[in-house]
């Protein structure tokens, strides 16, 4: 063992360094059928009004409100996609269907349920209001009105409105290409029987799921042995195509911990140790051509907590998200959250609803090897370093992973 030469950096400072050195990726024009989950790279502005014509909201009769209470001649029909030719003369009405264009001369629509039909005439009720039962031009969007802002994630409704404005492709940020590698001579492929002293490479699957869920396009490099030349070979090859490298294991100060020297030889290590628990050995480096590398600790909880604290916000910055952090909510602690070291601590909790409050209960032993402390956890509670911790009953902002 040797002592680490890297300064122990405050957790917030480390997170700021990561974001400072993480680039926003370029823009690409993507067909709308592949845009779900992507982030808009430019503001979308309405070019034409929506709806583009006065459009009936119901099935009924289009007429002048001033003809209320009269019996009118039915002069024609306007159905969706088939506008009536010419307008309606005074004293007449037009049959109209939902989505049909309001004919010239009409200023309201009466629902079919409210009229009386006889021969070629329609008798309409008294007391009609101009403007009723149809959508006016530009009711939803006027030309020049902002539709969606850059940084918006495209969900169903956002894709719907973009399509309604006639766009077949959208400008979105490129998805980050991430090369993922596990390191350690003790690791075997999941599904193979571990030999003496061996364990399954579980971090790969946990991080693959986390990366994909965060929008990354992942290339799995598999298990690299604790052997400097092999490690270097794999990483250098992978970096030709990737925006980021994510490794797990090999960042602490044991003699087999080879990731830090490797990253140092390929670029600049900005973070080598963090005042964070779990996650003290977290390492962040910049490499050539704006690429970034995250050396996550090997312990399963440490790798996923440092993913949440450092990697996810960086991936969101790359994709142009307006909000980089996970959402937080106030929760009431059901337990004394004591710090167990002089480091900022992210404790795993489950949440339950009590009245209008969310109450946080510890997931038990917070050992960084105990993935059961994170499996099923709803939130991470940040316990500040170096004081008494947080008393049971106090209300804190928790980083929400999922809601109960
Ligand atoms: P390291 O950071 O390489 O010193 O590893 C710390 C601990 O995490 C050791 O007990 C490793 O066996 C374990 N570990 C490292 N990589 C993985 C992995 N990919 N999957 C599961 N456990 C791992
Ligand atoms: Mg190792």
Describe the fold and architecture.
With 404 residues, the protein is an alpha/beta fold. It has helices at residues 11-20, 156-164, 202-213, 228-239, 259-266, 300-318, and strands at 8-10, 27-31, 44-45, 55-56, 60-63, 71-78, 92-96, 108-111, 116-118, 121-123, 134-135, 146-148, 169-173, 177-183, 187-188, 199-200, 217-224, 244-248, 268-271, 273-277, 283-286, 292-296, 328-333, 344-354, 357-362, 379-383, 395-400. A six-stranded mixed β-sheet has the order 8-5-7-6-10-9, with no helix packed on it. Strands 17-14-18-22-21-19 form a six-stranded mixed β-sheet, with helices on both faces. A five-stranded mixed β-barrel has the order 23-25-24-26-27. It is elongated. The model has no long low-confidence stretch (mean pLDDT 96). The structure holds adenosine monophosphate (AMP) and magnesium ion (MG). Residues 183-184, 249-250, 256, 298 line the site of magnesium ion.
Keywords:
alpha/beta, six-stranded mixed sheet, 27 strands, binds adenosine monophosphate, binds magnesium ion
Cα-based radius of gyration, to the nearest Å:
31 Å
Helix content: 10-25%
Number of helices: 6
| Low-pLDDT residue spans | none
Shape by Cα distribution: elongated
Major sheet: order of its strands? 8-5-7-6-10-9
Bound molecules: adenosine monophosphate, magnesium ion
Mean pLDDT score, rounded? 96
Secondary structure tally: strands: 27
Briefly note the structural class of the backbone. Answer: alpha/beta
Q: What fraction strand?
A: 25-35%
Instruction: Report the major sheet.
Output: 6 strands, mixed
Gap between N and C termini: 44 Å
